[in-house]
Specification:
By secondary structure, the protein is of the alpha+beta class. 37% of the residues lie in helices and 22% in strands. It contains 18 helices and 19 strands. Bound molecules: ligand MV4. Ligand MV4 binds next to β7, β11 and β12.
């Protein structure tokens, strides 16, 4: 919506009852409530959203990056209703949404892929032969799955059959499609993705990579651009592969092509995400391009406003996801009221947030409160700036991933750039946080101390306030019982 304002375009927001007080609702020129908090009764009701769009005579729908953003049926309905879907065609979304058809398309263009079965596994003998050929362990993947859903590692040949059967039946019930395939399991890979932009005139470019290896249970936690390991040669090769894949599906708009990079710097195509991604701001920082502006430009039928030769990497950018989760407690979502909310400011800092002080964090959606993105002349400056920004970020009322992200920023493996997708499991234990979790006994001691302290003080309110500022343990205890 900010980009729309920049472009002189007025906006309509749709919202659920849970988001009535959210800042985005006020920011829009008009806003329409489309239903109760449950996303199945609001944000996932494509027909309802289209109905509102038609009634208010909007020109186009931007699907964001959750909910219906990769739903081909929705994209088709929007188009059939005479509206512009700000994204690729339903056909491109469908082809890339299914991993086997995406791999088949990539294969025609000689894109490197992890050795494995050529299509869906229909016969267990054939699967055994593939496993023998590519070597164990192998990874079973669901063709319809995404973001690691439905994956299984198989270390022993005799377990392959039962694991394939289990994976297929899980995939069938989760995605309505039981097709599975196998690949050699790449140990300790990095997850690197390439941002692409294409228009409807046959032009496609890459906007370099994002390094997304720091993740937890397939949820990204830290993203950065550029990656500290890519050489200009590999970057160019990966970028060209990503452009070839977008051309293979006649792509239009912003998309992301995911790769694995192994320890010998071989890269393999994994899948394509047909939406703007959460971590797109790091690419905006290093390229100076507003990706949403370019999405709208392309959706209007214009040519891309830049060519590959015009693009270059400037500086370094890092993003962290600030989530209402408790890193000391297995990252359990933490609900509550944002009693303090003051984001960091200053040069090279961008905060994309959706909350304000005093708001209750809705339990219905993803617990992400904000994205904190920094820019620096180089990686060292970006890391320093991120640490400063985390220190300046004041949030109370809920536990957040801020301290955990600071732990990452300071970790030697992150600082040196020598890490892979196993970083969190390898290096993180809850007790490593500077705000170590307080166990029940410590909570009790803190509570008693707090009461004794308060009763001995004349200005009770004032002392309690100063206590909260200085004693993090007690403030945590207070929070949970507030
Ligand atoms: C792999 C792999 C190792 N070998 N494929 C996970 C998400 C999905 N997009 C693909 N994923 C993986 N595919 C082969 N042949 C390891 C992963 C993987 C992973 C990939 C990217 C980011 C984080 C990950 C965490 C665990 C596993």
């Amino acid at each position: 919506m900010r980009t729309c304002r920049d472009m002189g375009i007025s906006t309509v927001a749709v919202f659920s009852e849970a988001d009535r007080k959210a800042p985005f609702v006020r920011y829009a020129d008009e806003a329409v409530c489309i239903g109760p908090p449950e996303s199945s009764k609001s944000y996932l009701l494509g027909d309802k959203i289209i109905e509102v769009a038609k009634k208010l005579k909007v020109d186009g729908i931007h699907p964001g990056y959750g909910f219906l953003s990769e739903n081909a049926a929705f994209a088709k309905k929007v188009k059939d209703a005479g509206l512009i879907f700000i994204g690729p065609s339903a056909e491109a979304m469908k082809m890339m949404g299914d991993k086997l058809s995406a791999k088949a398309a990539a294969k025609k263009h000689n894109i490197p892929m992890v050795p494995g079965s050529d299509g869906a596994i229909t016969d267990i003998k054939e699967a055994q032969e593939v496993a023998k050929k590519v070597g164990l362990p192998v990874l079973i993947k669901a063709s319809a799955g995404g973001g690691g859903k439905g994956m299984r590692v198989v270390e022993k040949a005799e377990l392959l059959e039962e694991q394939i059967k289990l994976a297929a039946s899980e995939a069938k019930s989760a995605f309505g499609d039981g097709s599975v395939f196998i690949e050699r399991y790449v140990k300790g890979p990095r997850h690197i993705e390439i941002q692409v932009m294409a228009d409807n005139h046959g032009n496609a470019v890459y906007l370099f990579e994002r390094e997304c290896s720091i993740q937890r249970r397939h949820q990204k936690v830290v993203e950065e651009a550029p990656s500290s390991v890519l050489t200009p040669e590999i970057r160019k090769k990966m970028g060209q592969c990503a452009v070839d894949i977008s051309k293979a599906c006649n792509y239009s708009g912003a998309g992301t092509v995911e790769f694995l990079l192994d320890e010998n710097m071989n890269f393999y195509f994994l899948e394509m995400n047909t939406r703007l991604q959460v971590e797109h701001p790091v690419t905006e920082f290093i390229t100076g391009i507003d990706l949403v502006k370019e999405q709208i430009n392309v959706a209007r039928g214009n040519k891309l406003s830049f060519k590959q030769e015009d693009l270059e990497i400037n500086g370094h950018s890092i993003e962290i996801r600030v989530c209402a989760e408790d890193p000391a407690n297995n990252f359990l979502p933490d609900i509550g009221k944002l009693t303090t909310y003051a984001p960091p400011k200053g040069p090279g800092i961008r905060v994309d947030d959706g909350m304000e002080e005093g708001m209750d964090i809705p339990i219905y959606y993803d617990p992400m409160i904000a994205k904190l993105i920094v820019f620096g002349q180089d990686r060292t400056e970006a890391i320093q700036r991120m640490i400063r920004a985390i220190d300046d970020y004041k949030i109370s009322g809920v536990q957040t991933t801020l301290e955990f992200c600071k732990f990452v920023m300071k970790h030697p493996a992150f600082v040196s750039g020598k890490f892979d997708t196993h970083f969190v499991n390898t290096h993180f234990k809850p007790e490593m946080l500077s705000q170590a979790p307080k166990d029940k006994e410590q909570d009790m001691i803190a509570a008693i101390a707090s009461v004794m302290f308060a009763s001995k003080t004349e200005k009770k309110a004032a002392s309690a306030a100063s206590f909260e500022r200085t004693e993090k343990g007690i403030s945590a205890w207070r929070r949970r019982r507030d």
